[in-house]
Design a protein that fits this description.
Number of strands of chain A: 2
Number of strands of chain B: 10
Distance between the termini of chain B: 32 Å
CATH superfamily of chain B: P-loop containing nucleotide triphosphate hydrolases
Domain ABC transporter (chain B): 4-245
Structural class of chain A: mainly alpha
Radius of gyration of chain A: 23 Å
Largest interface: A-B, 18 and 25 residues
Number of helices of chain A: 13
CATH topology of chain B: Rossmann fold
Order of helices and strands of chain B: EEEHEEHEHHHHEHEHEEHH
CATH superfamily of chain A: MetI-like
Subcellular location (chain B): Cell inner membrane
GO cellular component, one term (chain B): plasma membrane
Largest sheet of chain A: 2 strands, antiparallel
Distance between the termini of chain A: 48 Å
Function (chain B): Part of the ABC transporter complex PstSACB involved in phosphate import. Responsible for energy coupling to the transport system.
CATH architecture of chain A: Orthogonal Bundle
Largest sheet of chain B: 6 strands, mixed
Helix content of chain B: 25-40%
CATH topology of chain A: MetI-like fold
Oligomer: heterodimer
GO molecular function, one term (chain B): phosphate transmembrane transporter activity
């Protein structure tokens, strides 16, 4: 009786574990089965390097969106990484005990805010700021919906990821390194930037790569502030479209090859994410070996 | 006047008094050993000599510690300059996770030396002084974490020497090492005292006898006896010292 129960539970656990594997497998199959034929029909090279996206004329080049995703993500990294790392330094080494719980839950809360709320914040606060800047300086723009606005919003969105990973990695740096450096007469700042952060380097990089993954996959917040023009990115004050937003913008009315081209866009995005995850696990493995 | 004078010093961790009215004169170019059972305050005293105790929350000091006649706890004292003058070697070897060369060069670079040739000289000189140059000269660019424990400890001594301190504090520097490495470190300490004032905490009474010139015995936060090492171990003046060195407790 007991044996039967045990076996039964084991089966339930196995089934549960299979569900997630099955989900990944099905998504893969769906994506590639629908996307690859479309890419073939359009031509792999034309699809990936084509600079024009005009579904009405059956021209499907997604280079503008690939670049859009990369630029917006790069912008998010430029904004988010320094802030994130400095915040982690503060939390791990300078923060008074009383403020720490507040700061910690604030950064965690940042991770829990729905992306549509970020998008709305961007639309109401960031976009008008960019618009004012554009207008007062006479720069050509799209009314503030821009790469800059999207980068700022994404930069804020990736903060919790970077802070969480970086802080825990900095805390796991042995105290002896810290003391050893101070005992040589080094200042606290020098100790942190020359000893502690380099010792936590691979963890910090893993945090940044996770942040990249988050930024490149983000859709809702970006769609609300980026302008979404299907054209090659033309500067930080101009609008652009990313791979994710391209899919959302046109999925509702697309049919036939157009629809499949959107799925193919998702395939490219999926490959990007795969590469990023691979980087993270490689970094983590190197961490464990140290 | 000694190199370091400790006057009427009390040390508190919060409300707990870890050191009680310590008076001690540490002579220049001698090895001074602190002995006593665990928890007697000897490491605490050592750490207050270069203010590493500042890192401990709730640590408070009364009385004076004078280095060359100047109060190291005075407001005008720059802690980083003090720690440059009073170097420290820890119980557990703690090389930084970088190359052997960079470990040694870290201190001098911290204090503003960036010329490659100067750094090369300092690295070689420090490693020679720590009697480890011949073992590592061919792998200066390799990670210091790949060395044996004994080598790591001598590297840490070399690293401390590289900033040209006047005093070298050693907190049970051989407790994590094998006997051969231990004797190397002891020889090294005996060798270094001509240029440096050395203060060493040790659990090992034989070690104190072998290498120290003066010994201070601590018990429950009090300094019981301080004397020439030979005298302290042959004719201790306090009953408690005698009990401890003859192994009746501790």
């Amino acid at each position: 009786m007991k044996n039967w129960k045990e076996k039964g539970m084991q089966g339930v656990f196995l089934l549960a574990a299979c569900a997630s594997i099955l989900a990944v497998a099905l998504i893969c199959i769906f994506l590639f089965a629908n996307g690859i034929p479309a890419m073939k029909e359009i031509g792999f090279l034309d699809f990936l390097t084509g600079q024009t996206w005009r579904p009405g004329n059956n021209i499907y080049g997604i280079l503008p969106f690939i670049l859009g995703s990369i630029y917006v993500t790069a912008g998010a990294i430029i904004i988010g990484v320094p802030i994130g790392i400095f915040t982690s330094v503060f939390m791990a080494h300078y923060c008074p005990k009383k403020i720490y719980p507040v700061l910690k839950s604030a950064t965690e809360l940042l991770a829990g805010i729905p992306s549509v709320v970020y998008g709305f914040f961007g639309l109401v606060v960031i976009v008008p700021l960019v618009r004012d800047y554009i207008n007062t300086h006479g720069i050509r723009g799209n009314g503030g919906n821009s790469m800059l606005a999207a980068s700022i919003i994404l930069g804020i969105m990736i903060l919790p990821t970077i802070i969480g990973v970086t802080e825990s990695n900095m805390r796991s740096v042995p105290e002896q390194y810290y003391e050893g450096s101070l005992a040589l007469g080094a200042t606290k700042e020098r100790t942190i930037f020359r000893i502690v952060i380099p010792a936590a380097k691979s963890g910090v990089i893993a945090g940044v790569v996770l942040g990249i993954g988050r930024a490149i996959g983000e859709t809702m917040a970006v769609i609300m502030v980026a302008g979404n023009q299907p054209q090659m990115p033309q500067g930080i004050f101009r609008g652009l479209r990313t791979m994710t937003t391209n899919i959302v913008m046109e999925m509702g009315y697309a049919a036939d090859l157009h629809r499949e081209a959107l799925i193919a866009t998702a395939v490219v995005l999926f490959v990007f994410i795969l590469i990023i995850n691979l980087c993270v696990s490689l970094l983590n493995r190197r961490n464990d070996n140290d | 006047m000694g190199k370091i004078d400790i006057k009427d010093m009390d040390l508190f961790y919060g409300s707990f008094q870890a050191l009680k009215n310590v008076n001690l004169e540490i002579e220049a170019n001698k090895i001074t050993a602190f002995i006593g059972p665990s928890g007697c305050g000897k490491s605490t005293l050592l750490k207050s000599l270069n203010r590493m105790n500042d890192l401990v929350e709730g640590c408070r000091i009364q009385g004076k510690i004078l280095l060359d006649g100047q109060d190291i706890y005075a407001k005008s004292t720059d802690v980083n300059t003090l720690r440059k003058r009073v170097g420290m070697v820890f119980q557990k070897p703690n090389p930084f996770p970088m190359s052997i060369y960079d470990n040694i060069a870290y201190g001098p670079r911290t204090h503003g030396i960036h010329s490659k040739s100067k750094l090369d000289d300092i690295v070689e000189k420090s490693l020679r002084n720590a009697a480890i140059w011949d073992e590592v000269k061919d792998r200066l660019k390799k990670s210091a974490l790949g060395m044996s424990g004994g080598q790591q400890q001598r590297l840490c001594i070399a690293r401390a020497l590289a900033v040209e301190p006047e005093v070298l504090l050693m907190d049970e520097p051989t407790s994590a090492l094998d006997p051969i490495s231990t004797s190397k470190i002891e020889d090294l300490a005996a060798d270094l005292k001509k240029d440096y004032t050395i203060v060493m905490v040790t659990h090992n009474m034989q070690q104190a006898v072998r290498i120290s010139d003066n010994t201070a015995f601590f018990l429950l936060g009090e300094m019981i006896e301080y004397n020439n090492t030979e005298k302290l171990f042959s004719i201790p003046s306090d009953k408690r010292t005698e009990d401890y060195i003859t192994g009746r407790f501790g």
